[in-house]
Amino acid sequence: MDKELMKKVAGQEAVKYIEDGMTVGLGTGSTVKYLLDALGKRVAKEGLRIIGVPTSNRSAKRARDLGIDVKSIDDVDHIDLTIDGADQIDENFQGIKGGGVAHLREKIVAINSKKNIWVVDETKMAKNLGSFPLPLEVTPYGSTHLFKRLDKMGYHPQFRKNAKGGHVLTHADNYIIDLKMHYIEHPHELEQILNNLTGIVEHGLFLDMVNMVIVGDENGSKTYHAR
Ligand code: 5RP
Predict the structure, then answer these.
(1) Which residues are involved in binding substrate (predicted)?
(2) Which end of the chain has fewer surrounding CB within 10 Å, N or C?
(3) First and final CA of the chain: distance in angstroms?
């Protein structure tokens, strides 16, 4: 089964958890795209009344184009459910996000949601985190010094660059540094270290955050209850 189909299956399964009247956090990425397509169809066919809270300009535009009402997180008083993608999920349902440069907004929306669901294709599931580089959103100011510090700490940092060789910029015009660590033995310890480094606006470790993971595979989809 091809990867696109596995993403589609996961996105389409997740839309079943959205109920009339909900305020729904809308994640970012190619798997969430399928969720948005399926949600747009439900809105059109069933007259589902939901408010979407997008985590990126891309998701906001797509949702609007599909007829889904969207509001900024600061214009809603709660979020019932957020559905998002992930870059890697370990066997304890800890995750890495930020491959699509949106992890700051994604984390803000996730921590303000009553429930979080991740939708992924089966290639994202791993025993341990780390083979996917861990994204950090960092302030441009002082970033070369932060980079050197991360390098000395043995975290194998790399600035994320665009095709023209410039820095990839986040929604807040910050830079991304990816940590090519290959293996993260103790995610909670690393989280504490990164939380304490000045200049990191937010890192892509999403720990103890997801309630349900929907994995698209060659047989359809599997749903895991994480916590
Ligand atoms: C964006 C993210 C995405 O959720 C993550 O990159 C997964 O994207 P995709 O579904 O395209 O693989 O964290 O910052």
Answers:
(1) 28-31, 84-87, 97-100, 124
(2) C
(3) 29
Cα(86) to ligand 1 centroid in Å equals 5
pLDDT computed for residue 104 by the predictor: 98
Is 79 a member of any domain? yes
The answer to whether residue 1 scores a pLDDT higher than 80 is: no
Classify residue 223: in a domain, yes or no: no
| Three-state DSSP class for residue 225 | strand
Whether the Cβ atoms of residue 20 and residue 49 lie closer than 8 Å to each other: yes
Q: Could you tell me the residue range of the domain that residue 145 belongs to? A: 134-196
pLDDT digits (tens, 9 = 90+) for 165-200: 999 999 999 999 999 999 999 999 999 999 999 999
Residue 227 lies in a domain: no
Q: Is 106 marked active-site?
A: yes
Ligand 1 mutation pick, 8, 30, 109, max ligand atoms within 8 A of CB: 30
User: Does a structural domain hold residue 224?
Assistant: no
Same domain for 181 and 146: yes
Catalytic one among 13, 106, 137, 202?
Answer: 106
Q: 113 and 144: one domain?
A: no
SS3 string, 157-225, reads EEECECCCCCECECCCCCEEEEECCCCECCHHHHHHHHHCCCCEEEECEECCCCCEEEEEECCEEEEEE
